[in-house]
Design brief:
Elements lengths: L7 H11 L3 H4 L6 H6 L6 H10 L35 H24 L16 H12 L3 H5 L4 H14 L3 E5 L1 E2 L2 E5 L7 E4 L6 E5 L4 H16 L4 E3 L10 H14 L2 H7 L6 H12 L3 H10 L5 H18 L7 H9 L1 H12 L5 H8 L4 H10 L4
Parallel strand pairs: 1-5
Antiparallel strand pairs: 2-3, 4-5, 4-6
Length: about 375
């Protein structure tokens, strides 16, 4: 039987890249330990199966040495005090896909005469945090009065996404690669990223993260757009990052969601902390985690108390939060941005974009599904 000439180092690299332990992968490929030692070689069919299992392009196995894969945009993530060394296949593929979507939308915007977003790159990290947050609220229409009309802070999050899209930003929120529920994105690896572009600004939110975290991630990534800086982030509402850009974006995000000038006179010290956190979360229509962070920023919580309260609240929220399949078409629109999806479907139905290209970018396998999605989004 014909055997494939594959370097053992590439086999080890593919397994490590996918983050799959030897004992797990060897359960499916019993000869894998021998292949990695070089004492035997796989067949071409076995290489193809291994490529699929490790999410590796099959051609990589026939390179002379393992390729060095890097994110095609600035990486602001941290793991402890060290930068991460290798992005996962899921993160890489998600970034590549969003770059393709952005490239398509940029060309569409040029032809359609869409005006560029003046706010992209309009400030610097030297700009005043409070002034920038106020400018963002005005641009987005994300003020306290508008939020007060929302029944809950999760409704406010949906409105926030809608306001960002109305301002010209494509907001994509997904917890999986395309529509493959077997390829879940890991919030521990990244929480979001932004592709800055005046004509086609794009924000991606890791939908596998908690709902409580997603509002802050969106605010953080929008701050990146205001300084015109692309990048992948893992910053959370709890963090005070060391990197200047991430620290500044976190400060802007927190001020955007809960202005300290409003919080300080609103805070009631004569009630229990739990009651006050819940009340302020309802008042500002943000998650309780954001309120806890802002109470710390305002000096109402010390460092140790903040840590204890934040950890306890995070544990409570994780215990409460449950995933839901929901409506496919609503989920699809959230995953691929209503702004992007409507433009792509309209252009495709007009014959300007091939159906196969539209289906690939949306992760849809059937033309019928594409048409139904268009009907749900009222695309003619």
């Amino acid at each position: 039987m014909l055997r494939a000439e594959v370097s053992p180092s590439l086999l080890r690299w593919a397994r490590d890249r996918a983050g799959i332990p030897m004992e797990v992968l060897a359960g499916r490929f019993t000869k894998l330990p021998e292949w990695e030692l070089g004492t035997s070689k796989p067949t071409l069919k076995q290489v193809e199966a291994l490529a699929k299992a490790t999410l590796t392009p099959v051609g990589y196995f026939f390179l002379p040495e393992p390729p060095v894969e890097v994110l095609p945009l600035p990486d602001f993530r941290t793991v402890g005090d060290e930068p991460p060394t290798r992005p996962s296949p899921n993160l890489l593929e998600t970034v590549y896909l969003c770059q393709e979507r952005q490239s398509w939308y940029r060309e569409f915007a040029i032809i359609a005469g869409v005006a560029p977003c003046a706010f992209v790159g309009s400030v610097t990290t030297g700009s005043d945090v409070v002034a920038v947050a106020e400018s963002m609220r005005e641009t987005l229409g994300f003020d306290l009065v508008a939020r007060a009309a929302c029944p809950t802070w999760t409704d406010a999050l949906r409105d926030f996404i809608g306001q960002a899209e109305a301002a010209g930003v494509m907001v994509m929120c997904s917890g999986v690669v395309l529509n493959n529920n077997n390829r879940k994105l890991d919030p521990a690896e990244f929480r979001g990223f932004v592709l800055s572009d005046p004509l086609a600004p794009l924000v991606f939110i890791n939908g596998a993260d908690t709902k409580a975290a997603q509002m802050f991630t969106l605010a953080h990534e929008l701050a990146h757009l205001w300084i015109g800086q692309s990048g992948v982030s893992d910053a959370t509402v709890r963090d005070l990052p060391d990197r200047e850009i991430e620290r500044w974006c976190n400060k802007v995000a927190a001020e955007l969601l809960v202005p300290l000038a409003v919080l300080r006179p609103e805070h009631q010290r004569n009630v229990s902390l739990d009651t006050e956190i819940a009340r302020l979360a309802r008042r500002f229509k943000v998650s309780t985690l954001v309120i806890i962070r802002r109470l710390r920023d305002a000096g109402f919580l010390g460092k140790a108390a903040f840590s204890d309260v934040f950890d306890a609240e995070m544990t409570r929220l994780l215990a409460r939060e449950k995933g839901s399949g929901g409506n496919f078409y609503l989920t699809q629109a959230a995953r691929t941005s209503k702004r992007f999806t409507r433009a792509l479907l309209s252009n495709t139905l007009e014959g300007q974009t091939l159906f196969r290209d539209a289906m690939r970018m949306l992760g849809i396998a059937k033309v019928e599904t594409l048409h139904k999605l268009g009907q749900r989004l009222e695309v003619e």
